[in-house]
């Protein structure tokens, strides 16, 4: 392995996962065990039930965490972006993968194998604590999703999702000063567990009011403050 590649992997681990407080030599030890991987758009990284031998850290691109019903209906559980980890549950508990993981676009990530990572955690309790905090955060988010599904109408649930996307991956749209987000109506329906027709109806009402407009493979939020206001009302 070249020194430049080792340094790049060490920098990725420090920036996105471990932090800069760890000793550089320890960081290099872990970086030497990490594999740099790429997945093309729509490539399946793993499937539900697969044995989980590694966790991944996204460097660029996006990964969809998916569940699929026996009827073929798809539910997007989460969207993993740069700096986020996925596949960690199976690495810790040793059971099969709890969902599918599929690249939404060209994605680069680091892969850490269980056989190397678990002994490392035993030597690095500060990293183990960070991983515990990540898991707790995801449990809290899952709890909020359940509460939203039970207590909120579709408009407010949808506003919360759009607000999240604006924060995470939103880009200024030069045409009317709105915020462009790379998500489709089908994606939103899959994330919220509702039909595409229901999403179309709500988005159609907002489109008629000049709140949003559709683009190819994306939505443009023309009035982002209105969407954020609806989302805040729902929290």
Summed over residues and divided by their number, the pLDDT gives a mean of 85
How much helicity do the residues have?
40-55%
Q: Report the strand count.
A: 12
Poorly predicted regions are: none
Account of the 3D structure:
This protein has 235 residues and is an alpha+beta fold. It has 9 helices and 12 strands. It has helices spanning 3-18, 24-33, 88-93, 114-123, 125-151, 154-169, 185-192, 196-208, 224-233, and strands at residues 35-39, 44-46, 54-60, 63-68, 74-80, 85-86, 100-103, 107-113, 171-172, 179-181, 212-215, 218-221. The strands form 3 sheets. The protein has a 4-stranded antiparallel sheet with strand order 1-8-3-6. The radius of gyration is 19 Å and the shape is globular. The mean pLDDT is 85.
Briefly, what is this?
The protein is 49% helix and 23% strand.
Characteristic key phrases:
alpha+beta; globular; 49% helix; four-stranded antiparallel sheet; 12 strands
Tell me the layout of helices and strands:
Layout: H1 3-18, H2 24-33, E1 35-39, E2 44-46, E3 54-60, E4 63-68, E5 74-80, E6 85-86, H3 88-93, E7 100-103, E8 107-113, H4 114-123, H5 125-151, H6 154-169, E9 171-172, E10 179-181, H7 185-192, H8 196-208, E11 212-215, E12 218-221, H9 224-233
Helix pairs in contact: 1-2, 6-9, 7-8
């Amino acid at each position: 392995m070249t020194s430049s590649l080792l340094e790049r992997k060490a920098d990725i681990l420090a920036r996105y996962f471990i932090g800069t407080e760890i000793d550089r030599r320890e960081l290099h030890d872990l970086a030497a065990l990490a594999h740099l991987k790429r997945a093309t758009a729509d490539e399946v990284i793993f499937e539900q039930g697969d044995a989980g031998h590694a966790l991944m850290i996204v460097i660029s691109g996006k990964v969809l965490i998916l569940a699929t019903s026996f009827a073929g209906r798809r539910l997007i559980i989460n969207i993993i972006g740069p700096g986020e980890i996925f596949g960690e549950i199976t690495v810790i508990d040793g059971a099969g993968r709890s969902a599918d993981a599929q690249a939404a676009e060209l994605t680069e990530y680091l892969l850490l194998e269980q056989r190397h990572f678990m002994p490392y955690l035993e030597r690095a309790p500060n990293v183990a604590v960070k991983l515990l905090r990540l898991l707790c955060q995801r449990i809290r988010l899952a709890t909020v999703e359940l509460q939203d599904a039970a207590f909120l109408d579709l408009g407010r649930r949808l506003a919360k999702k759009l607000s999240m996307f604006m924060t995470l991956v939103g880009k200024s749209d030069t045409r009317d000063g709105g915020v462009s987000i790379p998500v489709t109506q089908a994606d939103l329906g899959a994330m919220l567990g509702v039909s595409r027709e229901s999403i179309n109806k709500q988005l159609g009402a907002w489109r008629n009011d000049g709140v949003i407009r559709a683009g190819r493979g994306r939505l443009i939020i023309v009035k982002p403050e209105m969407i954020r206001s609806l989302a805040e009302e729902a929290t």
